[in-house]
Amino acid sequence: MQFMKPEDWSDVKDKLEPAFGAYANGRPGAVEELIAAHPFLRGEIEELLASHLCMNTGFLNVAEECEESEEDSHAMLGHQLGPYQLVEQIGKGGMGEVYRAIRADDQYRKQVAIKLIRAGHDSPFVAARFRNERQILASLEHPNIARLLDGGTTPEGIPFLVMELVEGETINKYCDTHRLNTTERLQLFLQVCSAVLYAHQRLIVHRDIKPSNILVNSGGAPKLLDFGIAKILNPDAVGPVESTVTLFRLLTPGYASPEQIRGAAITTASDVYSLGVILYELLTGHSPHGARGRNADEIARAVCESDPDRPSSVIMRPAAVDDALTPAVIASLRDGSVQRLRKRLRGDLDNIVLMALRKEPQRRYSSVELFAGDIRRHLDNLPVIVRGDSRRYRARKFIARHKPAVLAAAIVFLTLIAGLAVTLREGRIARVERARAEQRFRDVREIANSDLFELHDAIQKLPGSGSVRNLVIQRALKYLEKLSRDSNGDRDVMHELAAGYERIGNLQGSFSGPGIGDTSASLVSYQKAVALREALAAPPNASVADTLVLVQTMVAYIQVLERTGRTGDAARGAEKTIAICSRISQERELDASSLAILAGARLSVATVLGGAGSSSTVRKISEAIQNDQAALATLRAIGNTENPSVLHMLMNAHLYDAVHLSKARRFDESQRLLDEAIAAIPSMPASDANFVGLISELFQWRGIMFERSGAHAKALADFEKDRDLTDAMVKANPDSVEAMVLLQIANAHIAVEKSRLGIKGADMQPLNAAVAIGERLYAANPAEHFYRNLLTGGYSYQGETFFLSGKIPPALERYAKAMQMAESIAASDPDDLESRLQIAKLHDTMGVVHAESRQWALARREFDFSSADLKNLLQLRPDDAEAHFVSELVQKHRTLLDACASEDTCRPTIWPLSSPII
Asked: What is the DSSP string of 807-833?
C-alpha cells in the first residue's frame, strides 16, 4: 500500500467526512466514487473507513471495540512469542490487541502485557506505526508511563511489544469508585501531567490521551499507555514514519484537539487540549462537548465550533430523563454537596480548565508544565497565571472577600511604606546613618508586634474572616523568622520573638473564638517560644521575671502537647515546670503577683497530670492533688480576694482539686471543696463572662461528683443550674462554639440523669445533639484528643440510655462506638492512661449488657478483657483508687455471672452498670 502524500491529502480530505458519513447511513456510493477517483489510495481509504466505522480512535482502544467473531478474538491464545506465552486477551482495538502473558522458559516468573497487530491489519502503514511506537517507548522511562520491557517479531513477521502489565481502573472510574474529592483528583491528575511533560521534553506528542489510556493501579499511581499514534517532533529521532497524513481517523473525537480533527499541524498544545478534556470530566462528570450519545460527526463539530460551559455551571445541568448523573450524584462522588463542589470549581478551576480547552492552540497553555503549574498554584492557594493581570487579580480577589480587613491593613501598610520611605531618605545622610538604621529596626519591630496583631483582633469577629486571620498569622511568622535572623543575640529582640511566637501559638491552637484550630502548627510555635524563654532564663543573666515568664510559656506548651496526643511529653514537661517553680520559690523572696503566677502554673500542671473533663492524662492523681493543694495554700496565703484575678484563680483551685479528689474517690472532700467554692459565688463579679463560665463548671463538676457517688437527684439539680448558666452564655455570645458545646453537654447530663432516675418523658434530643456537635468538631479537628474523649463519653451515655430503656442492640452499638473512639486514643497516645481506664470500664459495661440479655459467653469474654486491662493499668498506677474500684466491681460482676449462668434465674434489676464513662 502506498502512503498518502500531502498533495493527495489536500485533494481528498474534504471528501472523506461526508463520504464516510453517507457510508455509515447505508449509502456506499460516495466512498466508491472517491476510490474510483483515487484508485492508488484504495488501501488507505479503506483503512480509514474501517477505523471510522469502529469508532476506534487509537492504535488500541479497549473501551471501544469493533465487532468480530469469538474465534478471531482468541486466535492467538496459547501461542508463544519468544519466552512469553499468551494466556488471556485483555484488550483490543481497531488495529491492535493486548494479551496477558507469562514467561514460559522457567528462567523466572513474571506477568507482562504483549501488544501486537490484529490479524488482517498488518498493512505496511500499521506496521510502520507499530515500530514507531516501539521506538518511542524504548526512549521513555517514567514512573507514570507503562514501561517497554522487550520486543520482537512473530514467526509471521508481525512485530510485537512486551510491556509492563498495568492492572487497574481507568482514571475517571478510579476517581469515582474511590470518591476522591476535588483536591485528590487534581493531585492524581498532576501525576499524569508529569508523564506527558516527560514525553514532551523528549519531543514526543502522544496525540491520543483519553481515560482508557490512563490506568490507575492498586497503589493509586496512574500509568499512561498507548503511544500508538504518537508524533515525533524531531524526525531524526526514529526515522521517517510521518511521511503521510493518513491519521485522519486515528484519534478519539471526544478527546482530540480541534487541530487534530481539522488535519492541521500537531504540537504539544494538542496534548494540553486532551488533558483539559480529561480534567473537565474528572471535575464535573460531564464532557465539555455536550450531552452523551452524540455520534462522532456531532462530537467533531462541537470540538471545532462550540465553546464548553464553565465547569462550575455544567454540574448544575439537569439530568436527562434516562440519565442517573444528577448534580447531587456528581457532588456526592466529589466534595459532598452540590454547593460545596460549585464553590470549589468557581473561579480559578473554571479559568484553568477553559484555558486548556481554547480552540486556538496559541491561546492555550503553551506547555503542560504551565498547565500543571497553575494547578499546583491553585492547590497552594496562590494566584494562577491564567489571569491576564495577576497583581490586579490578586488584589481584586482579596478585597472582594475582606473589605473591612483590607481597609485596616491598607492603613497599616501605607503607614509602614511612608515610614520606610522617610527612613530611607534620611538614611542617606552619612553622619546619622547608624543611629537612624537602629531606630528603623526598633520602629519596624514595634509596628509589626502591635499593628499586625491589632489588625487580627480587629477582624476576628467578622463573618468569614478566618482566611484573613490566617494570612495575618503567616505574615507574622515570616516577620518573626526574619527578625530572628537579624537579632544577633539581642535579648530585647529575643523577648519580642518569644512573645510573638507565644501569641501566634495561642491564635493557632485556640479551641474556639479567635483561633484557627491548627494545634500542630501551634505546637511548633510554642516549641520556638520555649527555646527562646529557656535561653533568656539561663544563668547568669536571668531575672525573676524571665523565669516566671518561662514558667507561663511552659504551661501553655504542655497543654498543647496534651491536646495533640503527646501525653507522655506533656507529663515530662509538667514535671520540669514543677521543678522550676520549686527552685524559684526557694531561691527568691517573691511578691504576691509572682506567687500567683506560680500557683497558676501548679494548677495547670495538675490538670495535665490528673486530667480535667474530656482530657487525656497519665493519671498521676496523687501528684495532681499535691499541686492543687500547694496552689490553694499559696493563694490563701496571698489573700486579697477583692482582686478578680486572684479570686478567679482561687475558685479554679477549688474546682481542680475537687475534680482530682473525685477521681481518687474521695467524694466527701471533693464535695466540701465544691460547696465552699459555690458558697463564694455571691462575691464573684456577676457581669464577668469568665466568672459565669467558672460558676457553670462548678455546678457541672459537683453534679458529676454526685453522679459518681450515686446521688443522681442531687446531680440532676446541679446539671439544671449548669444548663441555665451555659444557656445565658450562648445567648450573650451566639458565635461561641465552646459555649454551645458546654450547653449541649449540660442538657445531655440532664437527659441521662432523668433516665437514671426513671423520670418518664426524658428528652434525649439534647444528648444526641451534643454527640452530633462532637462528631462535627472531631471531623474538622481530628488531631484534637479533646473531641475524641468528648465522643467517648457521649456514645457511652447514649448506650446507657438505651440499656436503661431495655434496648439492648442499640445500646451495644453505641458502646462499641465509644470503645472504638477510646481505642483510637490509646493507639495514638500510649502514655494516655485515662483512655485505658475508659476501655476497661467499657468492657465491663458491655459485659453487663450482654449478661442482661443472658449472653453468658459474650459477657464472660468482656469481663475477662476488663480484668486484663485493669491488671496492666494497676501495674503502672498501683495507687489508682478508681482502677481498684472498677476492678472490684468487675470481680463482683464475674461472680454474679457464674451464678446466673449455672442457675439461669437472674433478674435484670441485679445487674448494675460500672461507674460513668467520663
From this structure: -HHHHHHHHHHHHHHHHHHHHH-TT-H
Cβ pair 29, 22 in contact under 8 A = yes
CA neighbor of 348 nearest in space, from 317, 327, 376: 376
Measured over the CA atoms of residue 700, residue 706, residue 707 and residue 713, the dihedral's sign is negative
325: which residues sit within 8 A by CB, 6+ positions away? 285, 286, 319
Cα separations (Å) of 350 from 208, 284, 291, 391?
24, 11, 19, 19
**Cell numbers given for 839:** 476501655
Q: Give the Å distances, CA to CA, from 228 to 116, 253, 371.
A: 11, 16, 24
Q: Provide the pLDDT confidence category of residue 491 given band limits of 50, 70 and 90.
A: confident
Q: How far apart are CA 894 and CA 823, in angstroms?
A: 23
pLDDT of res. 83: 86
Give Dmax (Cα) for the chain.
114
Q: CB atoms < 10 A from the CB of 713, how many?
A: 10
d(CA 286, CA 899): 67
Which residues does 836 contact at the CB level (< 8 Å), separation at least 6?
A: 826, 869, 872, 873
Quickly list DSSP for 25-80: TT-THHHHHHHHHSGGGHHHHHHHHHHHHHT--SS--TTSPPP--HHHHTTTTT-E
Task: Express each pLDDT in 499-521 by its tens digit.
Answer: 888 888 887 776 544 445 677 78
Over residues 303-353, the pLDDT tens digits come to 888 889 899 999 887 655 446 678 888 888 898 888 889 999 998 999 999
State how far the Cα of 423 lies from the Cα of 438, in Å rounded to an integer. Answer: 11
Contacts of 294 (CB under 8 A, 6+ apart): 302
The pLDDT > 70 percentage for the chain reads 73
User: Which single residue is written with the C-alpha cell 496525540?
Assistant: 207
Cell numbers linked to 538: 539561663
Query: How large is the average pLDDT for residues 844-852?
Result: 92
Q: Which residues of 98-133 are buried (b: 16+ CB within 10 A; e: fewer)?
A: bbbbebeeeeeeeebbbbbbbeebbbebbebbbbbb
pLDDT number for residue 426:
62
- Could you give the 3-state DSSP secondary structure of residue 330? helix
pLDDT for residue 358: 92
Condensed to tens digits (0 to 9), the pLDDT of residues 719-778 reads 999 999 998 888 887 777 778 778 878 888 888 888 888 876 666 777 888 888 888 888
C-alpha–C-alpha distance, residues 522 and 519, integer Å: 5
Q: Which of 197-206, 428-437, 684-693 has the highest mean pLDDT?
A: 197-206
Q: How far apart are CA 671 and CA 705, in angstroms?
A: 7
Measured from the Cβ of residue 640, the count of other Cβ atoms closer than 10 Å reads 12
The SS3 assignment for 852 reads helix
106 vs 83: CA distance, rounded Å: 9
Q: Which three cell numbers, joined as nine digits, stand for 557?
A: 506548651
821 vs 71, 90, 121, 733, 814, CA distance in Å?
58, 45, 62, 31, 11
Domains and CATH numbers, the chain: 6-164 (3.30.200.20), 168-387 (1.10.510.10), 764-910 (1.25.40.10)
CB 101 within 8 A of CB 210: no
Q: Sort 893 into a burial class: Cβ within 10 Å, 0-12 / 13-18 / 19+.
A: buried
pLDDT above 50: residue 787: yes
Helices (H), 315-465: 327-332, 338-345, 348-356, 368-379, 390-401, 403-427, 433-459
- Conformation bin of residue 590: beta by default, left when phi > 0, alpha when psi is -120 to 50: beta
CB-CB contact of 112 with 163 (8 Å)? yes
| Residue scoring higher pLDDT (667 or 709) | 667
